[in-house]
Structures are given as C-alpha cells and as structure tokens.
Amino acid sequence: MSLIPTELSYTKEHEWVAAGSDQNIFRIGITDFAQAALGDIVYIQMPKVGQIVTAGSICGEIESTKSVSEIYSPLSGTVVAVNGDLESSPESLNSDPYNLGWIAEIEITGPAAQLLSAAEYASLTA
Questions:
Q1: pTM for this one?
Q2: Rg (CA), the chain
C-alpha cells in the first residue's frame, strides 16, 4: 500500500502539491505510488527556474530502469525553485518522494489542475 499524506493534494497523474511558506508558492513532486510503479529512478529532467508552466502540461521527465515518464504540472505559474539535489541523487524520488524528493516550487498565476484530496487519490490508486 502506498503512503498518501493527508495534508497534501494530488493529481490523477500521480503528482502531489504542498502549500509553501508563501501563500502563492507551492511545492510539487511525484507520489509514492508513482515512484513504486517506475522502479529505480536514474535521471530526472526538471523544469527550469523562471519557466512558465500550465496546469496539466508536461514540465519534465523521469527516467527509471523500467521506463520514461512525463511530469505534468499540477499548477499554472512560474517555477521559482527546483531541487538541485535530484541531479546527483535522483534515487531520492524513490526513497523519500514527499521530502527529499520534491521536484519544484511554483508561484501560481492561475488555477490548479483538478486536485484530489488524499482520500480521493487513495481510491484512485486502490
């Protein structure tokens, strides 16, 4: 069974969203379910700081020993930070997807993609 923290919001594409310290900045990453399905992650192509992203659009890519998977932005806005530690340690996405494995922070400028509660996401992955 996947770990699904209740304080986060989720997408059907298996990304999570967490409110940041600023009310307009949100942290994103992939879920425990996603990392388990991917297997051993060996590379991540993250969005670039300053990049404008649109909810539901592709903003990056994850390579694992099994496959390549796209990362979809759950929010519209501007990327204000990326987790540079993932460049040298992409396996953090496997070992700690909700903390060390965060991918980017987005300053929102528009509505989020349709986000799910933890309970809604749990029923999707059951």
A1: 0.94
A2: 13
Report yes or no: 18 and 8 within 8 Å, Cβ to Cβ. yes
Distance CA 25, CA 54 (A): 15
CA distances to 14, 35, 78, 84, 102 from 9, rounded to whole Å, are: 10, 17, 19, 23, 14
Ordered by start, the domain boundaries in the chain are: 9-112
Q: Show Cβ contacts of residue 93 under 8 Å, excluding neighbours closer than 6 positions.
A: 29, 30, 35, 41, 44, 62, 86, 101
Summarised one tens digit per residue, pLDDT across range 43-81 is 999 999 999 999 999 999 999 999 999 999 999 999 999
- Domain 9-112: top CATH class: mainly beta
